[in-house]
Amino acid sequence: MSAAEIPVDVDVLRDADQPLAWLDNSAIAGLMAIGLRDWSTDVVLCTNGPSELPDEDRAHLAAAGIPVSEQPITGLEPHGDGASITLSGGAPLARR
């Protein structure tokens, strides 16, 4: 299955070139985060804890310039048109 075949609820015009985050720790997390690069150059994959992403997926994410945050998510609050994601031991991420 390719990223183009998986529906993503993102308003392409509204969210274009906005900072985005994909919150996921499934087998397709890397694929989904890479798919978001079609809409934004600023994408972060948050796994909410240790991930078992294969090395190949990590390499693809790194090549796409997508950081992987494996820190636990301690808060998710509305922030403007998006959300503020608070990670354990880190500053909040303002994302769409």
Set down the secondary structure blueprint.
Layout: H1 12-15, E1 20-23, H2 29-36, E2 43-46, H3 55-63, E3 68-69, E4 73-79, E5 82-87, E6 93-95
Parallel strand pairs: 1-2, 2-3
Antiparallel strand pairs: 4-5, 5-6
Helix pairs in contact: 2-3
Low-pLDDT residue spans: 1-7
Coarse structural class? alpha/beta
The 3D shape can be described as globular
Number of helices: 3
Query: What percentage of the residues does DSSP assign to strands (E)?
Result: 25-35%
Task: Outline the structure in words.
The protein is an alpha/beta fold and 96 residues long. The protein has a single domain, classed as FAD/NAD(P)-binding domain, CATH 3.50.50. The protein contains 3 helices and 6 strands. β4 and β5 form a beta hairpin. The longest helix has 9 residues, at 55-63. The two termini are 25 Å apart. Mean pLDDT is 85; it is low at 1-7.
How would you describe this structure in keywords?
96 residues, alpha/beta, FAD/NAD(P)-binding domain, three-stranded antiparallel sheet, globular
